[in-house]
Amino acid sequence: MNKKRIPLAALGLFVLLSLIWGYNWVVMKKVMAYADPFDFSALRTLFGALALFAVLAWRRKPLKPVALGQTLLLGLLQTTAFTALIQWALVSGGAGKTAVLVYAMPFWLLPMAWVFLGERVRGLQWLAVALALVGLVFILDPWNAEGDLFSTSLALLASVSWAASAVIVKRIRARFDVDLLSLTAWQMLLGAVVLCGVAWLLPSEPPQLTTYFIVALVYNALFATGLAWLIWLVILDRLPAGLAGLSSLAVPAVGVLSGWLELGERPSGPESAGMLCIAVALLLISAIALRARELQARSVSADSRS
Fold first, then answer.
1. Would you kindly state where each structural domain of the chain is located, as residue ranges?
2. pLDDT tens digits for 257-293?
3. Is 264 helix (H, G, I), strand (E, B) or coil?
4. Is the predicted pLDDT of residue 3 greater than 70, yes or no?
5. Of 255, 251, 240, whose CA–CA distance to 287 is shortest?
6. Do residues 256 and 96 touch, judged by C-beta distance below 8 A?
7. How many CB atoms lie within 10 A of CB 253?
8. What is the pLDDT of residues 17-41, one digit of tens each?
9. How confident is the model at residue 148 (pLDDT cuts 50, 70, 90)?
10. Closest to 65 measured CA to CA, from 161, 169, 190, 198
């Protein structure tokens, strides 16, 4: 009986995580009315890092950093560049559209992993990449001169930065015995310090300490960072990696729906077609990952019996 309850609880946590991360795109969009994108990026990552260290202390995990130089590089990509770029993109870009473009990360990761990690792109993965590229063309809408090319470019750059950070994570974990939560906390802290420097150097009006700004900051630090990462680790522990990876489909879907309902961001025809292509491609990638895990598990099980 208990074994049946654990997957159900994990699936419930999966839904909660998708809602937290998905709705945060609306929160990050709306808070731009009260703060400069770089100021808010610096504050949310700094307080988010502190929240992660609190989780580390609560779980009695070691606080000492591992591979500090590579962790700093990871922080520059995953926190400094990624967070600043998505927040900047949201100044003029829609919450849902930005979320979809950023979560196209797996399609940049495939060629990067091929070049830097020796992971070949095979079979249906090429179909997923092709679908994603078609989707990006629809979303970019090059035949419409009124499209917001600048915010779209920033979102795509954030996606590329995220993919590059994933390659760095794989290299670090291949060479060092490091806890994922500890690595995340340290890279976020280091990246946040750099972001604070960038925010201080760039001229801007100070944040308006409105109720919404404070709530948005708390939501990002405690819920979208501390609580969400704790939930993510539980999901990874209790669900197959391929199924857990479906968050790359669920989160932007929640972002699109939330942006539509709360901000009135109704996607155009080409944008809707592009989002659908990317969603199908992400689903295909997740199915391939799940199938690969199953085959690997069967192979290990067969070897152990022989």
1. 17-301
2. 899 999 998 888 888 888 888 888 877 777 776 666 6
3. coil
4. no
5. 240
6. yes
7. 18
8. 889 999 999 999 999 999 999 999 9
9. confident
10. 190
Closest CA to 226 of 55, 26, 12: 55
Closest CA to 170 of 127, 110, 250: 110
Contact 183, 129 (CB under 8 A): no
pTM for the whole structure: 0.83
Longest Cα–Cα distance of the chain, Å, equals 68
**233/182 Cα distance (integer angstroms):** 12
Rounded Cα distance, 245 and 14, in Å:
10
Whether the Cβ atoms of residue 255 and residue 25 lie closer than 8 Å to each other? yes
DSSP assignment, residue 222? I
Which tokens belong to 302?
Answer: 């067969």
Percent of the chain with pLDDT over 70: 84
- Helix, strand or coil for residue 8? helix
